[in-house]
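Slide 14.
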Amino acid sequence: MGKRVLLIEDEPNIIEALSFILSRDGWTVHTHEDGATAMEKVIALPPDVIILDVMLPGRSGFDILRDLRGHEVTKAIPVMMLTARGQEKDRDLAIRLGANHFMTKPFSNSDVRDYVRNLMEA
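Slide 15: predicted structure.
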């Protein structure tokens, strides 16, 4: 069975870079850019791993993470938060809400690939 990752991100350059590196690593990458409809996307086709940006149009990644952890279908899906906001309070909030990992932008593609692999194996 294939490995599927859902990238919920609104920056085209990041979408392109992560889609490329994860596809090369054997992942099927689905993308979604709107925070307001992200939960619908996740529930329609639950992925193996979610990469979730904090700042999205329509709804914050923190709100989406809270919903993911509160929904029976999505509560156990590993989530890596990705953000340009690297403040300690943001990291603490993400972990408190149930994020499996928190990574700040800019990031190295190999770090993202390695963390996504680790999330799948955990």
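Speaker note: The chain has five helices and five strands.
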